[in-house]
Sequence to fold (390 residues):
Amino acid sequence: MKFISKLKIFVFLCLINLTLSEATSAATQAELRFTCQEANAIGEKAERILIRLTEILNHQRELAIQAANSTLGTADRQFLQITYAKKNEEIFELITRASFTDTFGDTYAFFKDGLQFRTLRHSAIDQVNVPINYRIEPFDLSIMGSLAEIFLTIEPKDNSYSFGNFLLNDILIEAPTANEDTISVDGNLVSSIAIAKRINAQASFTQVYSEVRPTEVEFKNLNFTGNSNQSLKAGEFKINGVSITGNVSTLPNFISAINFISSSTAVKASLAIGSTENILLTAADGRNISFFLTPEASKIFGGKINAGKQTFFGKFKLRSSSPFKLKINSSLFDLSEERIIERNQQNILKTEISTQTKASWALAQLDAAIMQTHLHRSQITPILGNCPPR
Fold:
């Protein structure tokens, strides 16, 4: 029994010692003291790594720009992807292996784990040594280059075109004016082009940027009636104010007629993917697509395209390198409650440039990663400023 009691006491004392050891370790990490010479060594090494990291990211950006070019072939993109992937490996090695060993032989992974420490700086005025604290935040590769994103489509309710209240990170975005969108024929006060310009004008305050996406309209199950010489006359069917004319007795003829004047309308037609009866109209620059169709001409399409005048609005993307708050009270969007837009899970090390679409996405994430690298460099500047090389 005495042996068991002694064993219990021994275990208890070990647990206390372990707890005190952990607490001391945590306190030591928070109260690390380095000489100015050591701090300068940390700062210079961190600076060299961040400069190299910026060079790699800029190189990757150049590769992504090439891969995003529509004229590039699949084989060329695959070749660029090999180089791009090797750069991602270099980024991982660069950040995870960044470390500093002090005069006592202790090693600190200052980017992987972060680092807090203090130095003493002599004040010539007060003739005393003043402690100065520094903090290097962990360089979190899991969110490096990840973006907080959301797509918004303009869908006016009940023919109401009130912009209402649009807040990003509690900053009010003002309603657009006619000056923002000079290319849409109709509805230019509430187009994706106009709204995106207003949002980007406030981006320095909100840290949220907007990117206009192509405007798309799909007409489904088009039935062409009448004889093989069925034609549209001037004024019967207009896209963005321009008449579509000629033989439209078949879907291919209709697509050709639209594309024949696409230089004037900025709208191109194509078969929807996987369909033989659905037509997709696209305005690549994001302008609104406006239609006018007479009742008689509507019969050509089996009534699948409504007669009269109608305008289809575009969409845009909001993105930020940090989570952001979005609150909209507007008849233009099907979104009324406040939302926090979180980062996606696609960090820079997961990006690819093997396709044109993937390369375009990678570009946005590379820009975010470069911005994050600049922010990290701003943490190093005070260390080098207060502890210059001797």
